[in-house]
Specification:
The chain is built from nine helices and 22 strands. It has about 350 residues and is an alpha+beta fold. The protein is globular.
Length: about 350
């Protein structure tokens, strides 16, 4: 049996935090004091040269802006690694709110950035601990994603969607930030890319037992089919029952065409992730990382590229700018790269990344 402090310490060691490593532990001004102390104790046990930085949110009118001022950014660029402990909800992750150009400067300085989305139950922190198998299959998948040009997804429920990603990089998310300039979130395992913004055409069906999640408030298990028609990269029609009506109203509230545009797409790689029927143990990391799921998002995809291999900042290297970002996490889909089958009915079947 290991204590939570020891488990956190093992997670930090995966990101090569060791003696004299210049580390900044970042949290919002709203935080779990006892949990933050465990991170501090773990860093102290590792012999890291660290201090804790609490950043209050900043806003301009109704929009959140970057929480970090020039002094914090200077410190981040001087650090070897930033460990970002997020209270979620209600606080918004600094790595996401921070303007892309500022986070890009931090990553390009060589600083690594590792985020922990807290509160996550202790059972989940242990269950979603990165395994060697997950890390290997994720990076193998990101390599296939990077080398491919076209994506084709289908399902027995009616999805038939094609996209082009030529020239866009593959992204591996494994919960480890061990290379200079690498960004990652602990507990996640997924492959992703930002496809060419106007390339998606076809139909996307969100079926019962799939999941919709968004920081802006629409976070729910789907109980009935929702059919989305996508043309030249944008959702042009949403059909179905009450959930379809809710989704239409929610996207319309942003008042921005880019909220309807494809942001990123990929599949989950974490064998430890569970699904919705697991009750309190199900979390955002499960939704995005569930082994073999198909994840597609709409809205913002301008995120800072990283100098680390197969690391696209938060999710990719796109050009779509708006204030919204909504993820659809879907089961039982087929996922093809250049007509090479990667996932069949929600199971990774390609031997190159299984």
């Amino acid at each position: 049996m290991t204590s939570l402090t020891e488990t956190i310490g093992e997670a930090l060691k995966l990101s090569k935090i060791e003696e004299n490593e210049k580390t900044i532990l970042v949290s919002s001004h709203v935080y779990d004091e006892k949990l933050l102390e465990k991170f501090e104790t773990a860093l102290n046990n590792l012999g890291a040269d660290f201090f804790t930085c609490k950043l209050p949110p900043r806003a301009k009118g109704r929009l959140l802006t970057g929480p970090a001022g020039s002094l914090a950014l200077y410190a981040f660029k001087e650090a070897d690694i930033v460990v970002d402990v997020i209270s979620w909800p209600p606080q918004v992750p600094p790595a996401i709110v921070m303007p892309a150009e500022k986070l890009r400067a931090v990553l390009e300085s060589g600083t690594r950035w590792l985020t922990f989305m807290i509160p996550m139950p202790e059972a989940n922190l242990r269950r979603l601990f990165p395994s060697e198998a997950m890390i290997k299959r994720t990076f193998s998948g990101a390599k296939l994603m990077q080398e491919a040009e076209t994506i084709h997804i289908t399902s027995e429920h009616g999805t038939d969607l094609t996209l082009n990603k030529k020239g866009r990089n593959g992204h591996a998310q494994v919960g480890v930030a061990d290379k200079p300039g690498r960004w990652d979130i602990f507990g996640f395992g997924l492959v992703a890319t930002a496809p060419i913004e106007d390339s998606a055409n076809g139909t996307l069906v969100i079926n019962a037992n799939d999941y919709i999640q968004e920081a802006g408030g629409m976070d729910m298990a789907v109980t009935e089919p929702v059919r989305c028609t996508i043309k030249d990269g944008y959702i042009t029609k949403i059909e179905g029952g009450s959930i379809a009506s809710l989704l239409k109203r929610h996207l319309a509230d942003y008042g921005n065409k880019e909220s309807y545009g494809v942001s990123h797409i990929g599949w989950g790689t974490h064998e430890g992730a569970v699904w919705i029927d697991s009750g309190p143990f199900f979390c955002i990391a499960d939704a995005e990382s569930h082994l073999g799921n198909m994840q597609i998002a709409f809205g913002k995809n301008i995120f800072p590229p990283s100098p680390a291999e197969y690391c696209g900042g938060v999710v990719g290297w796109g050009k779509r700018d708006c204030s919204s970002h909504i993820d659809f996490d879907l089961l039982e889909h087929d996922f093809c790269l250049d007509d090479e089958l990667i996932v069949r009915k929600g199971k990774i079947v390609n031997p190159k990344c299984s």
